[in-house]
Design a protein that fits this description.
The chain has 87 residues and is mainly alpha-helical. It is built from two helices and two strands, in the order H-H-E-E. It has a two-stranded antiparallel ribbon with strand order 1-2.
């Protein structure tokens, strides 16, 4: 899926452009979900929940690309389940 770049620098216009682009992308996504057997209402609620999750994650870590890879994180090896090791 492609997403158009912004055409304006003004915040209000960028918001309108982003809203229009997002609506177009979501209409295509809902149509694809419908073809796969999902109902419009259920996929719409799922998309809202996914958007809420992403928004919350962005508030906690606005630029996750700057985070170190998990293998570089400080700490010791720990058991995380039924005998699996985290490294």
């Amino acid at each position: 899926m492609t997403f158009p770049p912004p055409k304006s620098e003004a915040p209000a216009q960028r918001f309108e452009e982003a809203t229009t682009a997002a609506r177009t992308a979501l209409e295509k996504l809902v149509a694809a979900a419908n073809e796969a057997g999902w109902g419009t209402a259920e996929i719409s609620v799922a998309l809202l929940e996914a958007a809420r999750f992403l928004n919350e994650a962005n508030k906690k870590d606005p630029d996750p690309a700057e985070d170190p890879p998990i293998s570089d994180a400080p700490g010791k090896r720990e058991q995380i389940g039924h005998g699996e090791l985290f490294d």
